[in-house]
Write a structure and sequence with these properties.
This protein has 8 helices and 9 strands. With about 250 residues, it is an alpha+beta fold.
């Protein structure tokens, strides 16, 4: 069962409850920023007289997953695209590959990782809605099975054709996404990409890799680089822990 979100720009009042709920659910530091960052995973932005949410779209065939060499990003059976910072080696291929420019890097940490919406994967696995959908006071964001959300979106468009564009954003963009949107304002004017192909970009990634000659040898060299970078991250972490321990002793003395 694949689940997702349906966001309706005509209903959003811009209260920011979704962003605050996301911060609380994921224990993210600091205030809600105006744009998505490694510490703000969803925002509400005023555009063209309406409000639009920005967050990970959770592609059906995620390009970020296809380019990650260490499996730090995975697509769960329920729909969320999740991230494991313990596996991440900091290559940032996911940031460059994402068709929606979603993943963000922690530039302010000695051993940074990537930050992005994970569609409350833990809650979803327990059968609960995402924190953002639960917090929305006007149901501008609703949670449910993707097929049910598609039906709901098409029903709204059919019942009020003068209110909505005849398009469900995310239905086919980049191969389809778990986050869907409906609007009365053209999506490109809301800061969303409107020229994405229907074929998942990840398919091109796999096609390229399958045509590289002597790939096994190249991969072996690459894995050595991965090992070196991972070992370097561990060394930095040890230094940090040692420094923290020393500071604690100095504080007690």
């Amino acid at each position: 069962m694949s689940v997702g979100l349906l966001f309706d720009t005509t209903r959003c009042i811009g209260c920011g409850a979704c962003s605050s709920a996301c911060k609380e659910q994921n224990k993210l530091p600091g205030p809600v920023e105006e744009v998505t960052t490694a510490y703000t995973w969803t925002t509400v932005q005023p555009r063209e007289g309406v409000n639009v949410r920005k967050l990970c779209m959770h592609c059906a065939v995620p390009t970020c997953v296809s380019v990650c060499p260490v499996g730090a990003l995975q697509k769960t059976p329920e729909g969320p695209v999740v991230y494991d910072g313990e596996k991440c080696m900091g290559c940032r291929y996911c940031i460059m590959a994402c068709p929606f420019d979603v993943p963000k890097y922690q530039w302010d940490r000695p051993v940074p990782v990537v930050g992005k919406c994970i569609l409350c994967a833990g809650r979803v696995k327990e059968g609960k809605p995402t924190a953002c959908a639960e917090a929305c006071p006007v149901e501008a964001t609703i949670f449910g099975k993707r097929e049910d959300l598609i039906w709901e979106a098409r029903t709204r468009i059919r019942k009020e054709p003068d209110k909505y564009l005849n398009h469900v954003y995310g239905l086919s963009e980049a191969g389809g996404t778990s986050v869907l949107m409906v609007s009365g304002v053209p999506f490109e004017k809301l800061g969303l990409k409107a020229d994405l192909p229907n074929e998942p970009p990840a398919m091109k990634t796999w096609q390229v890799l399958s045509n590289i000659p002597d790939f096994v040898g190249v991969w072996a060299v690459f894995l050595y680089g991965v090992h070196w970078i991972t070992a370097r991250r561990e060394d930095v972490a040890k230094v940090e822990n040692h420094g923290n321990g020393r500071s604690s002793k100095e504080d007690r003395s």
